Amino acid sequence: EVQVVESGGGLVQPGGSLRLSCAASGFSFSTFGMKWVRQAPGKGLEWVSSIASGGKDIAYLDSMKGRLSISRDDAKNTLYLEMNSLKTEDTAVYYCGKCVGATSCFGSGLNPMGQGTQVTVSS
């Protein structure tokens, strides 16, 4: 069974940092691109970042460029998202997702969909 489990969210003050993790299982993690998607309160899913198999093809949401770093550890089947200089508008549930193939992907669909991890940015 393909599964993803997100963790690392929490309450942080504006300007703070968090590192999200996504533990994947049930598929050959190293051969797939992976992505992060978020859902802010009352809004739909929004693509945030993606990384290709091999880790060299990376993309970020324009509004978060310079504040994010996506990475992967294929030995641990784990995807990461380092978020810095967080803003109140970054408050959302963050989900990780598997791309269809080896390249980066940019859609907001999730299959499978994990439980997500809540990031709340507030003073």
Topology:
Layout: E1 3-7, E2 10-12, E3 18-25, E4 34-39, E5 45-51, E6 58-60, E7 68-73, E8 78-83, E9 92-98, E10 117-121
Parallel strand pairs: 2-10
Antiparallel strand pairs: 1-3, 3-8, 4-5, 4-9, 5-6, 7-8, 9-10
Distance between the termini: 40 Å
Residues in helices, as a percent range: under 10%
Structure class: mainly beta
Average of the residue pLDDT scores: 95
Per DSSP, the total helix count is 0
Fold and architecture overview:
By secondary structure, the chain is mainly β. It contains no helices and ten strands. It has strands at residues 3-7, 10-12, 18-25, 34-39, 45-51, 58-60, 68-73, 78-83, 92-98, 117-121. The strands form two sheets. It has a six-stranded mixed β-sheet with strand order 2-10-9-4-5-6, with no helix packed on it. A hairpin with a 5-residue loop joins strand 4 (34-39) and strand 5 (45-51). It is globular and about 40 Å long. The chain starts with a strand and ends with a strand. The mean pLDDT is 95.
